[in-house]
Write a structure and sequence with these properties.
heterodimer, A: alpha/beta, 6-stranded mixed beta sheet, 4-stranded antiparallel beta sheet, 12 helices, elongated, B: mainly alpha, 78% helix, globular
Chain lengths: 356, 243
């Protein structure tokens, strides 16, 4: 199966991916994920019927942040569950740093850190005890694990919460400690399943900074998200997943470039009132093909920027208005997502209560 | 093997720290056996001393199975059990840890009851080693029974209800009050498939009573077999349910 963008560009060929040898892990890419299918029930704890994976294939390069972007039910969590050994694929194989996730599950688990969608550490244990417990299960000695736990608490700004029960922390702090627990054994690969879902704006921002710093430390990250802006900001490459299939894989920049858009300019006028457009006659601007109202801005679709700016600046002066802000519109990842998938942006927002 | 046992130990330790004082554990694991003991003392104080071995076994049964209902079912509900599966440990190790935590709880509760009873009544243990072995091995057998019940359901109350389906018939058929040899012959085979029967028999022997079922060492072997069978079944069910 081959996936193509609307302009006919081949973006992804579903076939087994073979990687060249590399010194660090024996492969050029840290993860090789060959086509597999998961059919029947969605593999989650509630065993609700739902869409499953339908033959997806991708590879992740060492040290990159790779995003799986898609609406709920697209198969993002199922993919992480399979890669982390919680579910088995119906067919196909997945390799992480040379280990098969089914046949070498223990070795895979030793080399990955997983942050599930919910912060599910133990509420009855303190922050430090949660980290120590996690470390002990990775076989780390008590002295080393205590040092590492204290180091992580420092790194995540949770030193003061060291002896506080996990259950007493705020959502943002719980999330941070869950990420910290996934790093207790210093894994080269980290899976983050919807890391900022349910967090307030500040906590989400802090967590994104932490994720970026983890990449800077050389950790390879697989991140699932339904927040388009988050994928755009954090990911080196993005796979768009819809109904169990990967529709495309590329860098955020390349995805944006692949979008066919009309030339447009967004303008904010200082003395805007609901009657401005009607009274002042924007429709009379001949260099604008059409215009539309977007929140506090007007978007003018144009052929030629210079002639539009010339006519428009004269127009606003004549009308006694002034231009407060003006900028040309470049395609966003959201535009790319909408064009590639045929889905609406709202579908990503509605499902989890808004984007951040 | 050593790594697996060490991991099981940490899981058991974590469970003990987290769940010993959860309300369902206190009500079903501590208060219920305590009330049972008191009720039978008040009913017939003179015969009570002969019921003590059976009541100690019963206390083991309730405390261990209650603990398992919490450590497994509660953690499945919160997603914490799934978290354990993200670590490089097998389902067998996880359940061994959970069963060990439950067994420790059972032994602790029962020993506390026993110490209280030994102060109040002229109890004499003929064979302390057999008593200790019986208590420990029984607690593992009952804890694995509790694990088997708990992996099969989703909610803590379902686990307690399902556990009662096993626990209550055992109270009447395993020799706590009525000796197994006195049971109608049609019911006797049922008594023989209940782990409580062997637990009571071996604990009674440690108190100086004659064995009613078999030699106490054989009873301990049967209880160990129950442990492994329930553990194996629990692993199989949990693997199926989690994937």
């Amino acid at each position: 199966m081959t996936a193509k963008t609307k302009d006919g560009k081949e973006v992804f060929t579903e076939q087994k991916i073979y990687m060249p040898q590399s010194s660090a892990y024996g492969r050029g890419d840290k993860m090789v994920y060959s086509p597999f299918r998961k059919s029947g029930m969605l593999a989650d704890t509630s065993l609700q019927p739902g869409p499953a994976l339908d033959g997806i294939s991708f590879s992740i390069r060492q040290g990159e942040i790779f995003g799986l972007l898609g609406p709920n039910g697209a198969g993002k969590t199922t993919t992480i569950r399979i890669l982390s050994g919680l579910s088995r694929p119906s067919s196909g194989t997945a390799m992480i740093i040379g280990y098969d996730v089914v046949r070498n599950a223990v070795m895979v688990k030793k080399n990955i850190g997983v942050v599930p969608e919910s912060s599910n550490l133990y509420p009855e244990l303190t922050c430090i005890d949660n980290l120590i417990f996690s470390g002990r299960l990775y076989g780390i000695g008590i002295k080393k694990v205590k040092n590492r736990a204290n180091e992580l608490l420092r790194l995540f700004g949770l030193e003061e919460k060291r002896d506080v029960l996990f259950g007493k922390l705020s959502s943002g702090m719980k999330r941070k400690l869950t990420v910290a627990a996934s790093l207790i054994h210093d894994p080269p690969v980290l899976f983050l399943d919807e890391p900022t879902t349910g967090l307030d704006v500040m906590s989400a921002r802090t967590l994104r900074e932490i994720i970026q710093s983890l990449k800077d430390r050389g950790i390879t990250i697989l991140l699932t998200t339904h927040y388009i802006e988050e994928a755009d900001r954090l990911c080196d490459r993005i796979a768009i997943l819809v109904k169990g299939k990967i529709v495309t894989i590329d860098t955020p920049g390349a995805l944006k470039k692949s979008v066919r858009t009309e030339k447009a300019v967004d303008v904010r006028i200082s003395t805007y009132s609901p009657f401005v457009e009607k009274e002042k006659g924007f429709s009379k601007i001949t260099t604008a093909l059409k215009y539309e109202k977007r929140e506090e801005m007007f978007r003018f679709f144009i052929d030629d920027l210079d002639s539009f700016l010339s006519e428009f600046s004269s127009f606003v002066k004549q009308q006694g208005l002034s231009i407060e802000a003006i900028h040309t519109v470049t395609p966003s990842l959201e535009d790319a997502f909408v064009e590639i998938t045929g889905l609406k942006r709202e579908i990503m927002i509605q499902e989890k209560g808004g984007s951040k | 093997m050593t790594d697996a046992l060490r991991s099981a130990f940490f899981i058991a330790l974590k469970d003990m720290k987290s769940y010993y004082f959860k309300p369902p554990n206190i009500s079903w694991g501590i208060l219920f056996p305590l009330v049972f003991i008191l009720a039978f003392y008040l009913r017939s104080p003179l015969e009570f001393i002969h019921l003590i071995p059976g009541l100690l076994s019963l206390s083991l049964l309730f405390s261990t199975t209650s603990m398992e209902a919490i450590v497994i079912t509660f953690e499945r509900m919160t997603g914490a059990l799934e978290r354990l599966m993200l670590y490089p440990v097998s389902v067998m190790t996880i359940l061994t840890g959970k069963i060990s935590g439950g067994a420790c709880f059972g032994v602790t509760v029962t020993i506390v009851f026993f110490l209280g009873l030994i102060i109040l009544f002229p109890l004499h243990i003929e064979n302390p080693l057999l008593f200790l072995l019986s208590v420990v091995i029984s607690s593992f057998a009952f804890s694995s029974l509790g694990a088997f019940v708990s992996v099969s359901v989703k909610q803590v109350f379902e686990a307690q209800t399902l556990a009662n389906l096993f626990r209550f018939p055992m109270i009447f058929l395993s020799g706590v009050f009525i000796p197994v040899h006195s049971l109608p012959s049609i019911i006797k085979p049922v008594a023989y498939i209940m782990p409580l029967t062997y637990s009571i028999d071996s604990i009674k022997v440690s108190f100086g009573y004659e064995p009613q079922i078999m030699h106490p060492l054989l009873s301990l072997i049967v209880l160990s077999a129950f442990t492994f069978v329930f553990l194996g079944l629990s692993v199989k069910i949990l693997k199926g349910r989690m994937s």
